Amino acid sequence: MTRSMLFRKLPARALALALGLGAVRSAEAQTPAAPDDAWHFVVAPNLMGATLDGTALVKGQPLDIDVSSSQIFDHMDYGAMGLAAARKGDWGIVGDAVWVKLRVDNPMPPATFAPTIGLVSVAGVRRLSPYADATLGARWNHLGARIDLKAPAPIGLERTRDWVDPVVGVVLRTPADKRFHASLIADIGGFGVGSDITWQVFPTAGVRFASWASLEAGWRFLSTDYKTGKGSDRFEYGMLYQGPVVGLAFRF
Question: How much is the average pLDDT of 42-67?
Answer without folding.
Answer: 73
